[in-house]
Specification:
The chain folds into two domains: about 70 residues, Helicase, Ruva Protein, domain 3, CATH 1.10.8; about 190 residues, Phosphatidylinositol Transfer Protein Sec14p, CATH 3.40.525. Helices cover about 45% and strands about 10% of the residues. It is built from eleven helices and five strands, in the order H-H-H-H-H-E-E-H-E-H-E-H-H-E-H-H. The chain has a five-stranded mixed beta sheet with strand order 1-2-3-4-5, with helices on both faces. Helix 1 crosses helix 4. About 30% of the residues are buried. It comes from Lupinus angustifolius. GO terms for molecular function: phosphatidylinositol transfer activity. InterPro entries: CRAL-TRIO_dom, CRAL-TRIO_dom_sf, CRAL/TRIO_N_dom, CRAL/TRIO_N_dom_sf, PI_Transfer_CRAL-TRIO.
Length: about 300
């Protein structure tokens, strides 16, 4: 049975919305005049995410956003190109899926057991590239993405160093706030608990609450994951019905096309290759979705 909202509920929601809009304007004024990519980055949706990440405290949100703008001005994540990180993706350890979740969010699939390199710097650069790419392909009005992490083949030997895990968590939480909607850790082995006991201390409360463990024999955890994903889209390796067949060459072509979209949004640069590199190995990859005009907010 449906219940209509009372007038007081509508009034409270309207009041909260007005307060939030006021906070967004306050943060915009506090940041001051911007130009170039910083101006493109700091949309109203972007400011809202930073405010949400700091519980709508303008001063804390301002500091967080200014730190991000400094980081982006030096790291330049919007100018990383696929040909620079393609080697990291050869085994399909991280890629954008060819389906969305039930809310229309972009999905990233991570397979840590497929780790193929030893350079922490390159691994993080590869992750940042895929984060930017996922945001580039968010549907209009959608600000978040979902993660599916498949632990097939994972072992403590193949896990990333604790220092790297801490740096990765820092980048995700401090420079991509409120981008993660949910992260499902599918069938992690019991030895992962040792690694997790350390890593979880690097996560803030909001991020920690978005991480869900899923086990094939645990009905409740499977039902939770299926409430976010259509099992017809989920790969069999993740408890679904579709076939997982990562093709690095095809994914490379798709990423090279997306690099053109990114360059068109952020402005031209001289790092676009004139060719598509060959790939090897091999998940079905995402179709070529339309570019979201607020690509990396």
């Amino acid at each position: 049975m449906f219940h209509r909202k009372s007038n007081s509920q509508h009034e409270n929601e309207g009041h909260e919305q007005l307060q939030n809009e006021s906070k967004i304007k306050e943060l915009e004024d506090a940041i001051g005049p911007l130009s170039g990519n910083s101006l493109k980055y700091c949309t109203a949706a972007c400011l809202r995410r930073y405010l949400e990440a700091r519980n709508w405290n303008v001063d804390k949100s301002k500091k967080m956003l200014e730190d991000t703008l400094r980081w982006r001005s030096t790291y330049k994540p919007e100018y990383i190109r696929w040909n620079e990180v393609a080697g990291e993706g050869e085994t399909g350890k991280l890629y954008r899926a060819n389906f969305h979740d039930r809310q229309g969010r972009t999905v990233l699939i991570l397979r840590p057991g497929k780790q193929n390199t030893s350079s922490i710097e390159n691994q993080i650069r590869h992750l940042v590239y895929l984060l930017e790419n996922a945001m580039l392909n968010l549907p209009p009005g959608q600000e978040q993405m979902s993660w599916l992490i498949d632990f097939t083949g994972w072992s403590l030997r193949s896990s990333v160093p604790i220092k790297s895990a801490k740096e990765t968590a820092s980048i995700l939480q401090n420079h991509y706030p409120e981008r993660l909607a949910i992260a499902f850790l599918y069938n992690p082995p019991w030895v992962f608990e040792t690694f997790w006991k350390i890593v979880k201390y690097f996560l803030d409360t909001k991020t920690f609450q978005k991480v869900k463990f899923v086990y094939p024999k645990n009905k409740d955890s499977m039902e939770l994951m299926n409430s976010y994903f259509d099992e017809e889209n989920l790969p069999k390796e993740l408890g679904g019905k579709s076939k997982l067949d990562y093709n690095h060459e095809e994914f490379s072509k798709l990423m090279t096309q997306d690099d053109l979209k990114s360059a068109a949004f952020w402005g031209s640069d001289d790092k676009l290759p004139s060719y598509v590199g060959n790939g090897r190995s091999g998940a079905e990859v995402a179709p070529d979705p339309a570019c979201h005009e607020t690509a990396a907010t």
